[in-house]
Sequence to fold (489 residues):
Amino acid sequence: MAETNDVIIIGGGVIGCSIAYYLTKKGIKPLVIEKREIGTGGSSRNGGGVRQSARDPRELPLAMHGVKNLWPGLSEELGSDVEYCQGGNLRMGKTEAHIKFLTAMVESQKKLGLELEMVDGDRVKEILPYASDSIIGASWCPTDGHGNPMLTTLAFYKKALEKGAEFIVGESVEDVIIRKGKVAGVRTDGGTYDAPLVINAAGVGARDIARKVGLDIPMQPRLVEVIVTDQQPVLFDQMLGTAGSDFYGHQSKHGSFVFGGMTGWEDREFYDHRQVTKSNTAPATCRAILDYFPWMERTNVVRAWSGILAVVADGVPVMGPAEELPGFYFASCFCGHGYGISPAVGEQMAELVAEGRSTLPLDAFRFDRFLPKN
Amino acid sequence: MAESNRRKAPEGEYVPKADDDLLICRCEEVSQGDIRRALHQGLRTMNEIKRETRLGMGLCQGQTCTRIARAFIARELGVAPGEVGLPTPRTPARPVPMTVIARDGIMDEAAGEGI
Ligand SMILES: Cc1cc2nc3c(=O)[nH]c(=O)nc-3n(C[C@H](O)[C@H](O)[C@H](O)COP(=O)(O)OP(=O)(O)OC[C@H]3O[C@@H](n4cnc5c(N)ncnc54)[C@H](O)[C@@H]3O)c2cc1C
Fold:
């Protein structure tokens, strides 16, 4: 006989674990089903950016709420250090075209209430003395920062577990069970679990899950990579990016630099579900970094890996109930920026599930935005 | 369902043991107690424990401690080492300076480089 739960969450990434934790705060003890390991997807592989600047206007309220109200106390609340560091975000430019692009971004975001500004080369040097002279300006958002994605995911997991959520790790959800037009549970390769409410937080697997119930999301996987250096003296605490998006990164609490980078061809790459590193990505990333920080020449790279982004057509996640199927909820498609908003997403999704409404409106993320237009 | 897949709230507080201070990972100074604590809190696989404690993430990249750690975790959990798994191996095999990686695939003909 299938066991009965109030809520089942598919996927033990940072999103699934965050929702699970905030649900336990509402007195709901969900069952989370993860097919591999906790945080094995993008959640342990990302660059750790907790960024409001350059966010889509639809996502910005979640990002700002998280930075103001959730991130600062998160380590304490979860009882584990998530290494949150509010060092600001410096997005650097080297050409007039870069400055023009950044200025337009800054102007549009200021209108949305975010505190950020354009700074010139001298000011960049003050903020980040280690930057090369070729940087002529940057956007500067002092309230942005970074955290440790591996520790954040595990911290949500451990706290959710402690507060009564249960996890099944090592089983893959293969079908969503529907009875009388409503969600009734899931079937995995190991068993059947009943629940009137199922949340699809399966990361890159979310499209397959949605298709099981006849809903399709215009989402494509994209392989991107990260490199990590050996331990260095602590030099800066900002999250860094570039106008050309050729690399981004920060220095971790441990002292290693964590840099993400790309070749620019990621969306045209052959994709075969394997999280491999490509021979040309790390070289492209290192060239981009050395262009901004020539003194890193002799810094050793000790690890590199890839991760898969769940990139959706219009660049913002799919969240909330699917009107087509009562009991089926999305928390999917976080593209390249789901880590920074993960506490806010968990909190708001838990409100939505427990109380039927969330403090911050999630309407812009509804699935039905993809239905054919008439 | 395989009952071994299920994870529930830890029972009670972690009770320290006499040999908790013994180091398993020398590079990152991860002790037996650090690993036991992680297990107590619900972590199970090598990758999870690596991400939580930095086990095997230091200078030697786990070349010294991985197998010792796996045997220790298996003993603590009362399972076969094979069930604990190994951490995902990562490139490069040895630390490589950024400038070397940056020049990969680029030929400097004047210096007689390239094939
Ligand atoms: C290299 C890289 C850099 C990034 N940088 C940043 C950054 O700096 N800042 C930022 O905010 N975001 C960043 N991101 C994005 C961020 O990592 C993701 O948006 C976020 O991790 C999404 O979390 P998730 O829980 O939705 O997905 P995931 O972490 O992928 O979790 C989904 C889980 O579902 C499981 N699953 C899938 N299918 C099934 C199934 N059928 N049954 C059971 N379980 C299943 C998977 O095994 C996985 O563990 C980056 C991502 C990558 C890859």
About this structure: Chain B touches chain A through 38 residues (CB under 8 Å).
